[in-house]
Structure prediction request, 342 residues.
Amino acid sequence: MALEDTIIQLKGMGKKFKTANGPVVALDDINLDIRRGEIFGIIGLSGAGKSTLVRCINMLEVPTSGEVLFEGQDLTSMSEAGRRKARQSMGMIFQQFNLLAQRNILKNICFPMEISGERRYSRTEARDRAMELLKLVGLEDRAGAYPAQLSGGQKQRVAIARAIATNPKVLLCDEATSALDPNTTKSILQLLKQINRDFGITVIVITHEMSVIESICDRVAIIDKSHIAEVGRVSDIFSEPKSKIGRQLILGDAVTNVAFDNSRKIRIIFDGRESMEPVIANMILASKVPVNILYASTRDVGGKAMGQMIIQLPEDADSAGRALHYLDTVKIPYEEVTGDDI
Prediction:
């Protein structure tokens, strides 16, 4: 990867917090390259260190060790004034929206333009920019409303508009959809994809939900117990996770819905086949082997099947072999799973 393609680099970054019981390691030897214009996901379980990681990227938390490079400049060696200037190129949205309750929606979006040190916006310029962004997020008719009068999804749309008001190069999203229902989450993720596509803003998504990563991210880093467990293209990690935490996050609710006894089980990965193709029925007909579906989580995305399924193979080795041979022949990815993978 060429250096000019990288907008953020983390080199050996670590973060420790002092507590009454001694130092706590929140991040340890974090190395990441985030490319200009991509949607990059950071996923981990609660307490893994992902929120600390995003706060170190924009220097709201100063790392204890290592470097944070933004467009080639090391933020850790800068003065606080230099960090503030760099931070103005990074918008941020949060799980709880963080809107100003006493300001209406228009004034909430104008607020970062009023305090911008990089460029001073006139009152007219700020208002025009805010109305333009309200139209972008579909709330141009709610300019005079206050945050308490909006739904959660509307509040997050306002927060997104505010975050990009000063034309940042990076948008940091810290659990931005965790407080929203599934349909609202889908619309917010579509909005983030549109902003990334139309404005070329690099989007960094922090989440504990693999479905969010799968929906919009190009690449993903999985963080586990303060360390990066693996990094790669979302499709590659979804198809063949290398780490135990990766398998756990991808299997998701299969952890509780599947009884992992001694029988042989495989996870079939649907990564873009035609959604109307009856894969399991065809396998049964071709191999003449009945199988038991233990878990399925698939969806139609533009006519393509995405998701996964766990099936139980017959005990007879020859029968199981015929079923797997069919999957190999039609090039459907799969992997064996056991209780040790969870």
